[in-house]
Here is the input.
Amino acid sequence: MLRPCTLLATASSFIFLSSCANDPSPVRSSQPARLTASPAQLAVETPQSPTPIPSPAKTLAADLPITPKPIPPKPLPIPPTTEPEVAIRIETLALNQVVIINHAAGRLQIAPEHPSANEQNWTANAPIEIRVQGDGWRVTSAHKAGTPSITREFPAGELTIESLKSDSRPIQWNQKEWPGKLRVVRTPNNLDLVMDVKMDSYLPGVIAKELYPSWCDAAYHAQAIAARSFAVVEEARWEGRRHYDMVAGQQSQAWIGATENRKALSAVRDTRGQVLVHDGLVVPAYYSSACGGRPANALGVLTDNPFHNIDCVSTGNVSARRTSCCETTSVATWKASIALTKVQTRLQAWGSANGRADLASLQLPTSIEVVDKNAAGRPEQFRIQTRKGGSVLIESEDFRRAINAAGDSKSSMRSCDCFIRIAGGNAEFSGRGFGHGVGLCQHGAQEMGRKGSTYQEILARYYPQSMIVQAWK
Ligand SMILES: [Zn+2]
Here is the structure.
């Protein structure tokens, strides 16, 4: 049942495959689990860096091979009527690492998940040091002048660290400030640091990292609503399934914690509670740096979950994108030359990690050609021919993940919208755009805003037929 919402804007053409998002009934959850990869790890590609040219090295992180893990798809959520809290994993550490948390006020509140009779909540002097001890924790509080440090032990379970109510400034970890409460969660092999933070306290640190400081307010506002919509979907999707909803980084959305970036803060404040909605359900508003003029479809590129698709390819004025989106920006075109032996070993490694025996044993390629394109003309599948006459097919985004998994920014594949020529022992790439190309094109949004478009017009273009809805106040 859709709760009352305030309609703020209506866009112009289709967003979803009609079979995906039109029916919020429970039937949707009985769809076969087709996921072979976790979309959360692929959903958003962060192109931006403080430097004028987005660094390919940052993009690579989004493309690391992922562990196949079938997850039953959840239907998209209805707009929440109160501001959700999201759980953001900000770091994963080794079990023997010491977690040092500080606070400007010099005091922190520590709460164990399972308090013992002796160890309840503890107001400790900051900084504190947290170590794994046996199944539980050992927490050491700072010295006070002239006094020894204090150590307490806590039983197994999550530890929550937060500011005192009398001083709600963010906690500090790794020389940054992080709004919300920190949970230290022990997993079989690691320590996860997870911030539980209110949505609109989370978003400014996303927007500040996603866009350049010089970009226009309309792009910031559009990005705020897209990032909020994406986060609402992820929060609903992982609720009760995982101890976090998103990671701080390329695998979900970039997040730098607390920020004083005024454009980011005002974009989030001005759009507070607004999300993109299609047919009563929140849109998983993917975005990437530059579509290159040929947008991608989420299904098969970012997700196998039909509920999470955005059909931006077969609808809207796609042909106009080639000449009116991001074609004049710094990331419009790219070239790369990668030794064939590197291409081979990277594909082999990806094949081994992802259960593709044909790729794991790949011979040296002799040609790599596009064999399938989407409706916009963006390559969706490559055929790799090898010396001994072999032939292997690979989806274009998988190919890009395989090439980029090495983390070598000097020999990366910026987008799938490319042609590959083999010459002189190298694969010569010639391509357009940067990132997966699904949903909002950040450079295109900035171009629209620079020419006077509103954020509503930007969102209408990249998420056609979605509406901006006031979900919560
Ligand atoms: Zn574009």
